[in-house]
Structure prediction request, 280 residues.
Amino acid sequence: MKLHSLIPNSALFYFIILLLLPLRGLLAERGIDTEPANYAFSNYLGSGLYRTSGQEATVFNMPFSYQLENEVGPPLRVRLPVSVGFFDFDVSGLPEGVVPESIDTVSFVPGIEFDYAISENVTVTPYFDLGLARNLSTGTDTAIYSSGISLYYPLEGGDYDPLWVSRMYYAGHYTDATQKREEYAAFQTGIDIGLSHKFDVAGISIQPTIFATTYWYFVALEFDSPSGRDVSVSNSYELGFTLKSDQGIGYSFLSLDRIGVGYRFGDNFYAWHLLFDLPI
Prediction:
């Protein structure tokens, strides 16, 4: 399939992008008082270091999902991402067996998504999430909401299984106790390439992959940098690798089929990113 044949079929995707572009001006006009990227956004920004109520939290995101069996319409998937966070926890101690003593933040943001094929090789996947996060140390609850759309385009590459993915999404959270609201929208595009050499572990086929992706935030996000100061980021890039299995490891919806590490950088900012899903 040639690239130019994708363009007419993906008109819906680009039309939605044009509709979401005004979000940049809308959110900026609100003058929202933001803090470094809140742990409530970890489902969309990925596992990493976040700040909440003046504390730093190391958050791990596990993107569980469950495929529904339906005979009518496109197949639906229930999104069941769970995130847990730990205050003042140094992940460098994990190789030596140092583990957190307690969970300090938790979030559960269920949602629904479905795949819609717009051509033989191109699939569009819209989603909608609505859930809750809780800071267990302060007892503060935060409502989380998000919606977006993704385009998946497998490229011709033989055993390398290259996959081009583009996403447009919007996310926000609101804390009633502080009456604080934060919102952001982003566009992401990148490619994931599998290596031809596969190996087996306990009867499960594992394929190493490498990926490269870029993010453009319609409103600049504030991140914690390793130097300890907050950095405003309007775009960033990420490179990394993953190990992808040919089947879910775990039980039912509590299973994962990929693990990896990414290095995100841009605008005087860098971070290591722990992955449990397709990195793009």
About this structure: The longest strand covers residues 230-251. The radius of gyration is 19 Å. The chain has four helices and 15 strands.
